[in-house]
Amino acid sequence: MSGTFSADVSGANAFSVFAHEWRSRMGETFALAPFRRTTVSGFSARSRGFRVRDMMFNRFETAAALRTGGRRVGADGHVRLWIVHRGAWRFGEPGGAEHTAPAGRLLVQTGSLSHFSAAPRTVVQVLVLPAAEVRPQRAGPASRPADTAEVRLLTAHATMVGRMLDRLGPAGTDAARSTLAELARAAAGGGLDDVEPLLSPALAQAARDLADRRLTDPALSPSALARELNVSPRTLQRAFAREGRPLSSYIRRRRLEEACRALVAPHRRMTVTEIAARWQFADSGHFARAFRKYYGRTPTDYAVTAARETDAT
C-alpha cells in the first residue's frame, strides 16, 4: 500500500476529519494514536505525508498543544525518527522514562511508547519504518542535531517522494522506499555513503533547497553548498550530472526568476541596477545580457510589456 496524505483542519469537526483521512490513507499499520479529550476538542493542525510500502513519513504542524490518551502508542516492530523544527516533542517509554526533543534535534526511538505530546505551534517530521532497517547503536532513544547533511538529505528526499509518489510505478516506488531506508540509517547513525547512486536525487534536492534560501548571498556557489552538505564538490557535481544540468546553472536560473518577479512586482521600488545587485549579477549590463538570453528580451522591455498587459486586464 502506498499513497499520499494531506490535511489542513481546524474548527468544530477538525479531529474527525483528520482521523478519517488518516485511516483511509495510512491504514492500520500506522494507526492513529488515541488522543485526550482536550486535544480532540481543540484540534487544529496541518499535516502532509505519505505511506510507501511499510514506511510512513509525515510533516505535522499543530496550532494547539496535544497529548495522547491511553497507555500505549505505536508498534514494537517500528523505529521512529522525529525531526523537530519548532516547538518541542515529548514522549514516554513503557516503564516511565520521559524524553524531550527540542527544536533543532533529531530523536531516534524504537518500539512502542506510553504516550507522546507536543507544545503549541510545534512543527515536526516523523519517519516510521521497520525496526530491522535501522539498528540502534545503543539502548534507548538517541538524540542528534537535525541540521546534519544526513538529515537534510533525508527530509529533501522525503519531500520529493511526497510530491511524486502518486505518479510512480512499482519500480520507482521500490527505489523511493529503498532510498528512504538508506537515508534513515545514515541520519540515525551519523554516517553517509556519499557515492551511493540512489542518494543522488536527494543530495541534489538538498542542494537546491539550500540554494533557494541563499540566492541573494554573494558567497553562494556549488563549492559552498558542498561544504554545507558535508560532501565533496565532486560528489555534488556527480549528483547534478545525473540530472543533466549543473548546479551553477540552477543557481543562475533561480536568480533570474527571482529578479524577473522583482521587475514585474506591483508598485516596484527597485531599479534595474538595484535588482541586478540584489540577485548577485556583476552589473546591470551583465544582468541584461543574461536576462535577454533566458527571457528573449531586456529587463526594461519585459517590465514595460508586463505593465501594459496588467493595465489591459
What can you see in these coordinates?
It is a single chain. By secondary structure, the chain is of the alpha+beta class. It has three domains: 3-189, Jelly Rolls (Sandwich), CATH 2.60.120; 195-244; 249-311, Arc Repressor Mutant, subunit A. The chain has helices spanning 14-26, 37-41, 149-164, 170-189, 200-213, 222-228, 233-241, 247-264, 272-278, 284-295, 299-312; strands at residues 2-9, 45-52, 55-62, 66-67, 78-86, 88-92, 98-102, 105-110, 115-118, 122-130, 142-145. The strands form two sheets. A seven-stranded antiparallel beta sheet has the order 1-2-3-10-5-8-11, with helices on both faces. A four-stranded antiparallel beta sheet has the order 4-9-6-7. Helix 3 crosses helix 5 and helix 9 crosses helix 10 (284-295). The chain is globular and about 70 Å long. Keywords: DNA-binding, Transcription, Transcription regulation.
Secondary structure elements and pairings:
Elements: E1 2-9, H1 14-26, H2 37-41, E2 45-52, E3 55-62, E4 66-67, E5 78-86, E6 88-92, E7 98-102, E8 105-110, E9 115-118, E10 122-130, E11 142-145, H3 149-164, H4 170-189, H5 200-213, H6 222-228, H7 233-241, H8 247-264, H9 272-278, H10 284-295, H11 299-312
Helix pairs in contact: 3-4, 3-5, 5-7, 5-8, 6-7, 9-10
